[in-house]
């Protein structure tokens, strides 16, 4: 079982992903944007993975949230997703990108793939 922070501003997309990850046996905490997720991480850093949209309202986008989380929690994995990501960047080890709209099976497969690699293998 993984502890996952799910960050998505679109309520219905967040609820479907939350349910799917929970049904797969994971403990999921949800946040509606990067700012709310950053506040959660300040109080609780016991996460294995962050699944985050890239474009969200607020001060932190998904890229910034991922960078902040990785500096706060060494070894945390990050799955980014977006329907329109004009900002392309090179992904670091322990990161993956999933274009929207995505199939739930694809999301689960990437979660499994990302988290099956030990943190010290980076």
Tell me the series of helices and strands, N- to C-terminal.
EHEHEHEEH
Give the structural class: alpha/beta
Count the DSSP helices.
4
Overall 3D form: globular
DSSP E strands, number: 5
CATH superfamily: Response regulator
CATH topology name, in short, is: Rossmann fold
CATH-derived architecture: 3-Layer(aba) Sandwich
Rg estimate, integer Å: 13 Å
Q: Could you describe the largest sheet, including whether it forms a barrel?
A: 5 strands, parallel
Distance between the termini: 21 Å
What is the arithmetic mean of pLDDT? 92
User: Proportion of β residues?
Assistant: 15-25%
The poorly predicted ranges are none
CATH class: Alpha Beta
Please, how many domains? 1
Q: Strand order of the main beta sheet, please?
A: 2-1-3-4-5
Fraction of residues in helix = 25-40%
Descriptive labels:
122 residues, alpha/beta, Rossmann fold, five-stranded parallel β-sheet, 4 helices, 5 strands
Write up this protein.
- With 122 residues, this protein is of the alpha/beta class.
- It has one domain: Rossmann fold, CATH 3.40.50.2300.
- Helices cover 38% and strands 21% of the residues.
Brief write-up:
The protein is of the alpha/beta class and 122 residues long.
């Amino acid at each position: 079982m993984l502890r996952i922070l799910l960050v998505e501003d679109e309520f219905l997309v967040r609820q479907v992903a939350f349910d799917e990850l929970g049904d797969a046996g994971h403990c999921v905490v949800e946040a509606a944007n990067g700012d709310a997720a950053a506040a959660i991480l300040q109080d609780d850093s016991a996460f294995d993975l962050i699944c985050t949209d890239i474009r969200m309202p607020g001060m932190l986008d998904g890229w910034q949230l991922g960078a902040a989380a990785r500096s706060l929690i060494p070894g945390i994995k990050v799955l980014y997703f977006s329907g329109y990501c004009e900002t392309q960047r090179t992904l670091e080890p322990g990161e993956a990108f999933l274009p929207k709209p995505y199939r739930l099976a694809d999301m689960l497969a990437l979660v499994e793939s990302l988290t099956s690699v030990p943190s010290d293998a980076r």
